[in-house]
Amino acid sequence: MAAVMPQHDRTPASDGQPYYRPVAGECELFEVAFRHRLPLLLKGPTGCGKTRFVAHMAARLGRPLYTVACHDDLTAADLSGRYLLQGGETRWVDGPLTRAVREGGICYLDEVVEARRDVTVVIHPLTDDRRVLPLERTGELLHAPPEFMLVVSYNPGYQHVLKNLKPSTRQRFVSMEFDFPPPEAEAEIVAAETGLSGERCAALVNLAARLRALKGRDLDEGVSTRLLVYCATLVQAGMRIDEAARYTLVEPLSDDPDVRAALGELVEMTF
Ligand code: ADP
C-alpha cells in the first residue's frame, strides 16, 4: 500500500482564462472534440504551448482541469486511485483521472508515453463510446459524464522503440500536431508574456529560427517558446540581451562545449 498519491495539479473551473494565442484553429477543434465527447492527442516538442493551450481551453469551457506529468514510474493506480492508510483506517482515495471523471472535468496526461504500460488499460475504455472507468479495487464502474474529456500529449522527438504510443492507443484519439508558433505569433506571445518591446521580441524570435535550424545536426531539440519567454524575462529585468540569450538559449540546449560555442557564435552575430 503506497503512502502518497502522485503529483498532479487541479485547476478549479472558476480560475480566469490563462493567456493563449491561437495559431491554427486549434481552439475550434478542441471545442468540437469536447462537445462530441472525443478524446484528444496533442503531439509536439516541449515548450511549444500544449499545456497552456489545455489550461486555456479548460477555463474557457468552464471545466476543472487535472494535469498529470507522466513519468516512467506512473502506474494505472496512480491515475485511478488506491487504498491509503489514514489515521489508522484504510480509505479509498480517488486518483486524478477518477476525480476528473466524477466531476466532469478535463484530465490532461502530459507525456503519456512515459507512463507504465498498464496506464493504457485504464484509459482505453474511456476513449471509446463506452466512456467508462472500471475501478477494480472498489468494484465501481464509473460512467463519464458528457463534460469529461481526456487529453494526452507526447513529444514524437523523444520517441524510441520502447517509448512509443501503440497504434491501438494512438487510433483512439483525435490528433493535432503542435509546433513552435510562426514568427509573428511567437513574437506576440513573448511580448504578451513578458512586456518586452515587440522589436526586441522579434529579434529573439529571429535568433530562435537560426538556432532551430541546427536541430538534427548538432541538437536534439530546438529552442522552445518557453526558453524565449525566459530570455525576454531576463532582458526585461535589465540583463543585456546577449547575456540573457547565453543563459536561456545556449546553456539549456547542450552540454557539449563545441555545440555551445557554435550556438554562442550565432548569438554574438545577432546582437
Ligand atoms: P508544452 O506543454 O508544449 O511543453 P507550455 O504550454 O508549457 O509547453 O508552453 C511554454 C510557455 O510558452 C508557456 O508558459 C507560454 O509562456 C508560452 N507559449 C507557447 N505557446 C503559446 C501560445 N500559443 N500562447 C501563449 N503562450 C504560449
TrEMBL record:
Keywords noted in UniProt: ATP-binding, Nucleotide-binding
UniProt KW Metal-binding keyword: no
Sequence ranges assigned to domain CbbQ/NirQ/NorQ C-terminal in this UniProt record: 186-268
Pfam families referenced in this protein's UniProt entry, alphabetically: AAA_5, CbbQ_C
GO molecular function: ATP binding; ATP hydrolysis activity
Highest taxon in the source lineage: Bacteria
Domain ATPase dynein-related AAA: 39-173
Gene3D superfamilies with a match to the protein in the record: P-loop containing nucleotide triphosphate hydrolases (3.40.50.300)
InterPro entries in the record: ATPase_dyneun-rel_AAA, CbbQ/NirQ/NorQ/GpvN, CbbQ_C, P-loop_NTPase
Family: Belongs to the CbbQ/NirQ/NorQ/GpvN family.
Protein name per UniProt: Nitric oxide reductase activation protein NorQ
Gene that specifies this protein: norQ [H]
